[in-house]
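Q: what sequence does this backbone want?
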């Protein structure tokens, strides 16, 4: 049994080692991929790095000359020459450090900018189902926090690690060149100094990561409550939120206090051990100077190199944790970049729609299940033909599959079986961009973006001029309320159009759809949850929006679709019936029930059979 336990432990260690190696490999691959185009800047940074390391190591010899030839000889001329050499080295170090810092920082910022652009471009093309299965806050964290970690590492930490590695190697070599006896003492005592520092350093790094997590909890709690501030205040929940937030903050403070204490002990231990070791070296070296076995300049140079080696070793131990964080961040970014889209941007058999697009639609035996609910069929063997220019209304209870049909038409998902055709062309053989140019969508909850009102209307056609934007707004009955705003079309909207009523947002969405001028119009409950006046204005705008277009309308209010060419009754993904309002009232029980519920208190007759 003990052997079995040891085998399992070794297996876990082996798996962990492979995971860490895989992370490091992905980090290096990502870095190479994005750094490669800037090889000249990298070469310049490496030259500056080697130059500054060499100059720094040369300062020890400058110090030896200053002591032995400048001070010991008591000659002002020799002292001036020694100081002149020292200042030449210092100037070289200053200019080399400028070049190194600028080039390395430039590379870090440039590479991270390229990574952010590539990740964002990839995220824009991922199918919407990806965002339903992954938390948006986590994706944003990868996009911002992880790229910031990479920027810090590429633009600073890697440079620090390489510079201190050169210092460590060069310093050890020069220790032996300067005084082999004292160098042997340093090497023998090196583990006694480094091991405790590494031990405490690891504890500090672990606490730093934990502290960052708690700080992230603070930010998450603040963001959640401020985003939902109306709900918080409506239920007078402020006292409870203050209490809970105080707990989150105090938890973060407690961990930070522990981290600070450990960091203080680490600093105390490092100073004590390093300065103690240097004190021993100075004692032994001082005796050698007294007995004439070495010169004061050699001892000064040796102490300088010993300090360099100690500082370099400490710095390398510090940046190891940063490099591990970067490996984790890089692996998460690589995971995002390697996430495939379920919708092929370039079909293997590509077709092109003829111009102009007529707008005829056909569903052939379409079946579909959402990837998150593979056991629940949403659309079942649905077949339907919509003629170009026809207005088809989709009605049915919630969960019937109406919005799913829109998702399939826009190719946010591909059907599991069957085909969807536009003007006789299979949607899967069209690029998503070409397919979606055929559609203009007016959603139930219009998406408005940060920017001006004109920008939001122009979202459908960025090259549209101001006259086109105003014309679309007039048809959508939005021009009047826009002109009444302080800055008219140049009025900046807050996030999600904060400050506009539901009816105003909907009219902007209709203006946007008008500007798109697409052959197929998709209206997803465009008048739901609106007051009577807003609904009346939107109903006035819809005829011009629907003119000469194939229109599919999802509606819960049957009064808004009575005049559609045909009405499709859908339930559990199955077509129950299709016909005009009068026909369905006469023959379809589900439509009869919906009509009775909605027209019960209305003066309009239902025309249902007795």
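A:
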């Amino acid at each position: 049994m003990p052997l079995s336990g040891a085998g399992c432990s070794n297996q876990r260690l082996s798996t962990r080692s492979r995971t860490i190696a895989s992370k490091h490999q992905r980090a290096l691959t990502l870095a190479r991929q994005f750094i490669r185009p800037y090889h000249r800047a990298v070469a310049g940074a490496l030259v500056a790095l080697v130059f500054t390391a060499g100059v720094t190591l040369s300062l020890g010899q400058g110090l030896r000359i200053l002591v032995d030839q400048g001070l010991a000889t008591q000659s002002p001329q020799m002292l001036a020459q020694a100081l002149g050499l020292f200042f030449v080295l210092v100037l070289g170090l200053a200019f080399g450090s400028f070049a190194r810092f600028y080039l390395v920082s430039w590379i870090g910022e440039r590479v991270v900018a390229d990574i952010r652009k590539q990740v964002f471009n990839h995220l824009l093309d991922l199918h919407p189902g990806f965002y339903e299965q992954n938390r948006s806050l986590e994706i944003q964290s990868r996009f911002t926090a992880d790229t910031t970690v990479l920027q810090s590492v590429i633009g600073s930490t890697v440079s620090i690690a390489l510079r201190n590695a050169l210092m460590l190697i060069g310093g050890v070599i020069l220790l032996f060149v300067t005084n082999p006896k004292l160098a042997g003492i340093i090497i023998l005592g090196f583990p006694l100094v480094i091991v405790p520092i590494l031990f405490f350093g690891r504890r500090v790094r672990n606490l730093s990561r934990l502290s960052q997590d708690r700080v992230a909890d603070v930010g998450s709690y603040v963001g959640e409550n401020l985003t939902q501030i109306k709900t918080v205040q409506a239920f007078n929940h402020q006292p409870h939120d203050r209490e809970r937030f105080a707990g989150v903050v105090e938890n973060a403070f407690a961990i930070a206090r522990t981290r600070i204490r450990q960091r203080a002990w680490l600093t105390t231990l490092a100073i004590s051990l390093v300065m103690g070791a240097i004190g021993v070296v100075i004692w032994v070296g001082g005796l050698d100077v007294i007995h004439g076995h070495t010169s004061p300049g050699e001892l000064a140079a040796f102490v300088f190199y010993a300090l360099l080696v100690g500082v370099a070793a400490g710095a390398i131990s510090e940046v190891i944790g940063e490099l591990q964080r970067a490996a984790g961040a890089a692996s998460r970014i690589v995971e995002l970049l390697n996430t495939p889209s379920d919708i092929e941007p370039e079909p293997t058999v590509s077709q092109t729609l003829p111009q102009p697009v007529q707008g005829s639609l056909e569903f052939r035996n379409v079946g579909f299940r959402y990837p998150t609910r593979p056991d629940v069929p949403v659309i079942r063997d649905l077949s339907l033909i919509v003629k170009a220019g026809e207005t088809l209304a989709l009605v049915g209870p919630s969960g019937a599959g109406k919005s799913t049909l829109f998702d399939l038409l826009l190719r946010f998902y591909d059907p599991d079986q069957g085909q969807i055709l536009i003007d006789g062309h299979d949607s899967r053989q069209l690029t998503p961009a070409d397919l979606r140019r055929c559609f203009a969508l007016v959603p139930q909850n219009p998406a408005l973006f940060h920017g001006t009102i004109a920008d939001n209307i122009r979202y459908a056609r960025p090259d549209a001029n101001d006259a086109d934007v105003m014309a679309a707004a007039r048809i959508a009955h939005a021009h009047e309320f826009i002109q009444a705003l302080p800055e008219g079309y140049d009025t900046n909207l807050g996030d999600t159009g904060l400050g506009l009523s539901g009816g105003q947002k909907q009219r902007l969405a209709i203006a946007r759809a008008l500007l798109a001028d697409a052959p197929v119009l998709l209206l997803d409950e465009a008048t739901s949850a609106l007051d009577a006046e807003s609904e009346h204005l939107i109903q006035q705008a819809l005829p011009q929006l629907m003119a000469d277009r194939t229109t599919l309308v999802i509606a819960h209010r049957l009064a808004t679709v009575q005049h559609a060419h045909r009405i499709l009754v859908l339930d559990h993904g199955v077509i129950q019936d299709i016909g005009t309002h009068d026909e369905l009232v006469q023959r379809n029980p589900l439509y009869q029930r919906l009509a009775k519920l909605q027209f019960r208190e209305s003066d309009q007759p239902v025309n249902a059979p007795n």
